[in-house]
């Protein structure tokens, strides 16, 4: 309001209430409204009532454990936290323990073994998808250990984590933040933490020969995205631009990989990967359904340019609709996208559709299945005792080229890109764990036509 509620009395100090206001493109901002009151007792009553109302909101965190990756993205993590996030947490009376990581896996191992989790209402991750993956690994492994669950068994039902995770985006892709909030903006994410939002998320477990390898929350990509990541890791010094450079280079190499993908279709759900509707905040198709009957596994064999499993849309600034625009955050399924060998021109058409509203699945060489589990076996995999990728990859590569002198020299194996980490095996088994973790987010909100009317403010 432009005018105070009560006449200003110079002897009485004004009182300020901070609140969340929606801005453009899913941004949230903090605004203040100042009240003046000549009656001191009444003023105190207001303050007391507002404090009591806020304290009664049990979903709001009061004590948080914060991990900052100082080397993610443009290496701005500490600065982003100190300048944009810490003041908001202080304003909302949230106390924090802050750890600036000193090496890779510092946050994961601290959460797994040392952190006194009972003290906290949530964990905050300042960094990119890789740093978020560390936090998830730490929390999920700790929860399984505390509950006596064996992560090495692919069929084991995992115990959900009780602590929520907040992501302050400070990485290169930040697709998990973008796909759950709608924008990569540290202030917006901090405000979602403060108001105590809660968004459940599916987590995929990845196994090789009954041994646990990793969890995946966003993308598991073999072929194109695996090769982009392998090349870009050697160019970390380029910062976020490394993905564009390696993406272009990988596109030119145009390697394909042979193998078999078997999958368990999710037939008892309402949505499909070709839906025009999107996973949005509020009531939607995002719930864990219990399969009523067993369906058979499907198998697809062939030569693939890319095999992608998107457990969520994987929307990011590079691809605002994502790899699988209709994927759900928390329905217990992943969208398995198989891109068969095709011409460079056609693959470019497919890739470019990720940057527009055109349907990237509407192409003869692309198929997509919504699945609960899948396995991949590369063609040259020797039974179950798979070759070590690094040691034997080169040998196989030259062998294949000798056998097929006119071939385009595709190596036998790619690697799996698991949320930005390279997996050490090509043959993997993947299962989706419905709603295993929760974020301080609410999913992407539909943009209302009349923002002020549809979205009443929310006090800090
Ligand atoms: N102190 C540290 N020193 C070196 N590496 C670290 C440190 N802390 C965390 N890491 C590692 O840095 C890697 C990359 O971090 P992060 O995900 O934050 O940024 P990014 O890779 O630039 O972004 P994105 O994953 O969104 O593409 C993570 O895999 C994490 O394990
Ligand atoms: C030649 C034109 C190419 C255009 C292709 C645009 C498609 C971009 C889609 C990016 C999806 C990224 C999914 C997220 C993956 C993250 O887990 C990972 C780590 O941050 N990032 C990458 C790039 O692998
Ligand atoms: Ca999903």
TrEMBL record:
Residues 59-210 form the DAGKc domain. One of its GO terms (cellular component) is membrane. InterPro entries: ATP-NAD_kinase_N, CERK_C, CERK_PH, Diacylglycerol_kinase_cat_dom, Lipid_Phosphate_FormReg, NAD/diacylglycerol_kinase_sf. Gene3D superfamilies: 2.60.200.40, Probable inorganic polyphosphate/atp-NAD kinase, domain 1. GO terms for biological process: ceramide metabolic process. GO terms for molecular function: ceramide kinase activity. SUPFAM superfamilies: NAD kinase/diacylglycerol kinase-like. PANTHER family: CERAMIDE KINASE, SPHINGOSINE KINASE. This is Ceramide kinase. It comes from Oncorhynchus kisutch (Coho salmon). The lineage of its organism: Eukaryota, Metazoa, Chordata, Craniata, Vertebrata. The gene is CERK.
